[in-house]
Amino acid sequence: NWTMENFIDTEINRIRTIVGPTAEVIGAVSGGVDSTVAAKLMKEAIGNRFHAIMVDNGVLRMNEAENVKKNLGEGLGINLTVIDASEEFLTKLKGVTDPEKKRKIIGNTFIHVFEREAERIKPKDGDEIEFLLQGTLYPDVIESISFKGPSQTIKTHHNVGGLLDNMKLKLIEPLRELFKDEVRHLGELLGIPHDLVWRHPFPGPGIAIRVLGEVTKEQVAIARKADYIYIEEIVNAGLYDKISQAFACLLPVKSVGVMGDQRTYEQVIALRAIETTDFMTADWFPFEHGFLKKVASRIVNEVDGVARVTYDITSKPPATVEWE
Ligand code: XMP
């Protein structure tokens, strides 16, 4: 009979058979649930012959690269390399305001950086990298079958297909038969910490699609800090696990405010929090007023460049979860 414990043993054996005794596997990790669980499974199956790569694209959440180093590298013992490519990404994003262009640039730059790193790893230990790990879930498999072409995709997600076209790698997808809740269960059985297993999803293009308009280092820093405060308050209020996804967006709009006896003229932060089961439809989360008041006051007081905070009370549809 099918149990998750059996799945782990079967899958580890399957991975060992596919990869063989010497080949190496490479895979990207993001700090999210899927890539972490997939990476941990690989580590259990083939140890350091699995090479995890984390690309810092300059639009990650606060302290994300360090946290991944700590949690996946030190905590889970995964053979991990973190690459700081933030300048490269931010340079390519310069002057770009269109959301889909941002996604394409980030997707393509990611592929470029990842390939470069794969080349660099190769000669180090003689054996060839033959496989690419992907944390594809069953719903991703279904989606990529049913949505073909830009006319039917509302937003272009998962860009990693390009990696396979360019590098001569074989794909390995240990999670492709699992749903999200099963991946979380698997993660817990593999000893991945609760906070990591129950983390909200975070989009590949990151804060770049949460800084509306042009993405600059300064704008990212403002959005990142506001988001950090917001999530910290959500966790402190015991609400994190009740919410499906929450984040702050920085709007490219200036608004007048007053601080002490000074008139200010600074940007606006929009807070979003949603409840959903499938992310196809979503409701905004009904925070207590006192909670919103506290977050708004902290953000305006602690984040330079913000004069006003708003809360997004739009459902999906008609709005999407993200603002871009
Ligand atoms: P939307 O905004 O389409 O978001 O209602 C639904 C879910 O998808 C995430 N999302 C993305 N994830 N790359 C990703 O990896 C993307 O370009 C992207 N756009 C949206 C969003 O965060 C939400 O969970």
UniProtKB/TrEMBL annotation:
Molecular function as annotated in GO: ATP binding; GMP synthase activity
Subunit structure, interactors included: Homodimer.
Domain of life: Eukaryota
Residues of the full protein shown: 210 to 533 of 533
UniProt key word Cell membrane: no
Biological or metabolic pathway of the protein: Purine metabolism; GMP biosynthesis; GMP from XMP (L-Gln route): step 1/1
UniProt entry tagged with the keyword Nucleotide-binding: yes
Keywords: ATP-binding, Glutamine amidotransferase, GMP biosynthesis, Ligase, Magnesium, Nucleotide-binding, Purine biosynthesis
Binding of ATP, residues: 30-36
EC number: 6.3.5.2
Lineage, uppermost ranks: Eukaryota, Fungi, Dikarya, Ascomycota, Saccharomycotina
Function recorded in the entry: Catalyzes the conversion of xanthine monophosphate (XMP) to GMP in the presence of glutamine and ATP through an adenyl-XMP intermediate.
Annotated localization: Cytoplasm, Cytosol
Cofactor: Mg(2+)
Protein name as annotated: GMP synthase [glutamine-hydrolyzing]
GO cellular component annotations of the record: cytosol
Domain (GMPS ATP-PPase) ranges: 2-199
Catalysed reaction equations from the record: XMP + L-glutamine + ATP + H2O = GMP + L-glutamate + AMP + diphosphate + 2 H(+)
